[in-house]
Amino acid sequence: TKPQQAIYVIWCLEAEVNNGGFNQYYYNPSGAFAALTAEALRLVGAVKCADLVMRANAIYETQADEITKRQDGTLAGFSKSYIDNPLNALDDEFYAVVETEDLQQLQIDYIKKHKLDFIR
Question: How confident is the model over 67-79, as pLDDT tens digits?
Fold first, then answer.
């Protein structure tokens, strides 16, 4: 269901960004959900985080060639892709935003309000 999808893509975002920032989010398969994530965040009430993800998506869409040019499939290449990466600045902003918008609590509240979408 759309509510289940929302919870899943938010979980993917949190897991990747908390582990390796937005650079890792877009590098890994989770990045395939980037277009769905801002809407999912809005759905659960995380408006600030949704706006941040929209900005990250815009940066990645316009600068993907530059961001990924060092990514050659090796760990060294992936590590080098953090150098001068415009997404890096958004990582700290994400950590600050989730301090004010508790994504876990927002998701819990959303699931409680939409129980039937999760118990089928």
Answer: 999 999 899 999 9
